[in-house]
Fold this protein.
Amino acid sequence: MSDILIIGQHGQVSTYLQREMIALDNVKVAGRDEIDLSQVDLVYSALEAIEPKLIINPAAYTAVDAAEQEREQAFAINSLAVGEIARYAKDYDVPLIHFSTDYVFTGDSDVPYSENSSVGPNGVYGQSKLEGEKAILDSGASALILRTAWVYSNHGNNFYKTMLRLSEQRTELNVVNDQIGAPTYAGSIAAVTKQLVDLILEQGGLKPEQVGVYHFTCQGQTSWAEFARAIFVENEITEMAVHGIPTSEYPTPAQRPAFSVLNTEKLLDVFDVSLPHWGTALSQCVAETRSVIDERLR
Ligand SMILES: NC(=O)c1ccc[n+]([C@@H]2O[C@H](COP(=O)([O-])OP(=O)(O)OC[C@H]3O[C@@H](n4cnc5c(N)ncnc54)[C@H](OP(=O)(O)O)[C@@H]3O)[C@@H](O)[C@H]2O)c1
């Protein structure tokens, strides 16, 4: 038996959650060898074998472009398997924390999306994540669905690490400047999720009025080009010119939302917590980058 189960082992959010939870007793991390979300029929029995008392699911099929070709796999992992996790959570009365995405929205807005804004995913990834949200809501499980966006960190594949890698090879970069969002450090996601976990443990579960969808990003907004410039400034990389380009000059198989800023007031109203401003979080990530480098040099 395990009290807190984190599904997915090496993902960005999972990695930082594990760091946050390290001091807690009885936290279990299930990798694909134990819970393979693509094996939908086996998910429920795998959970029965573990007997978690609280489930956190940061695992997902996150390859946004590949999803356009791998629709079945994306839906299996992001919606059907999530339905099985929710069914277990309902049957065994176990609270569930699940992560979703800004890609449930079209991106046509110019004001931050609230949890009540109409959804309309542009591509397969967003559709599959939205179906996962619906499966949880339909199950009646006691769940928090945390929609995050533009996740980056010192771990895994993400925009922050790509910029640092490219800075070693080039002195000029073209970066999209007409997509607007809130870069969100996985460390910030994990820190605030830990606060929610503490509250759930203290309360002995979620109150009915706490259950539902929450927007869960860092504060503020910027473009990818401005974010890239901030990454270089914070990392004291001076030999790099960032040229802003329109999305039309950087076509991708899956369409990205042009505007994906999420209004996070509900999280503050209900739980009295919030993620930091994206600039503050970036400084924290850079401090971590430096400590990782220092560690290597030691
Ligand atoms: N990255 C973003 O920019 C972004 C934006 C908005 C929302 N989100 C959402 O935030 C959450 C966390 O994202 P992330 O950036 O941490 O994702 P990530 O780094 O891509 O990690 C994905 C995780 O899912 C696990 N996984 C994938 N297929 C699996 C399978 N068949 N069975 C079991 N586990 C499987 C991976 O397992 P392994 O450990 O074996 O690799 C990994 O732990 C996801 O729900 C994602 O949809 C992410």
The chain has a mean pLDDT of 95. The first helix runs from residue 12 to 21. The pocket of NAP is lined by residues 8-14, 31-32, 35-38, 58-62, 77, 99, 101-102, 129, 148-151, 156 (CB under 6 Å).
